[in-house]
Automatic annotation (TrEMBL):
Primary location class: membrane
PROSITE patterns linked to this entry: RAB, RAS, RHO, SIGMA54_INTERACT_1
SUPFAM superfamilies registered for this protein in UniProt: P-loop containing nucleoside triphosphate hydrolases (SSF52540)
Function: Intracellular vesicle trafficking and protein transport.
Family: Belongs to the small GTPase superfamily. Rab family.
Organism of provenance: Erythroxylum novogranatense
Protein name per UniProt: Uncharacterized protein
Record Gene3D superfamilies: P-loop containing nucleotide triphosphate hydrolases
Amino acid sequence: METSLSQQEFDYLFKLLLIGDSGVGKSTLLLSFTSDNFEDLSPTIGVDFKVKHVTVGGKKLKLAIWDTAGQERFRTLTSSYYRGAQGIIMVYDVTRRETFTNLSDIWAKEIDLYSTSHDCIKMLVGNKVDKESERVVTRKEGINFAREYGCLFLECSAKTRVNVEQCFEELVLKILETPSLLAEGSSGVKKNIFNQKPAQDVSVSGCCSW
């Protein structure tokens, strides 16, 4: 995946959403992808979002990536952000069993409830593989979940950046192979997915450093 030189010209605009329990590393994963940095971040309040311009498969893409809060008290605020998303990344922490259990108990149900695109591509990401000695969720469990729910699957480390780019690249490549999502992406400029106004107590910050 190459960063596009031009921020003005792009072939498609895709909206991606990061969901999962608080503390699984969604914000860190996003920061690692968009700025090549690693930081231990405090939990997201409401919704955060960043933009990255990339070239994948010969296409110039503008990715608007929304990072949602995992805490239950913010969940009603984030439901509207599923609207129009072409890709959804479900993140869990391989060292915390409950974050994996909640994928089926909470997050997969939310996708069914709130996602507006029948063809939306889902990806399952097991984060923090750098803590291998603390692992409690096996890779095989992740693979089995992904098969059951029809998701792409990767394990990664936002800290060491192992498989971070691959997470987004594989997701975007799959979106590019899906005609209905491609059509949505090409018309994204007209409907402007950036116009969604968050609730007053939701913090939204944009990053266009690429």
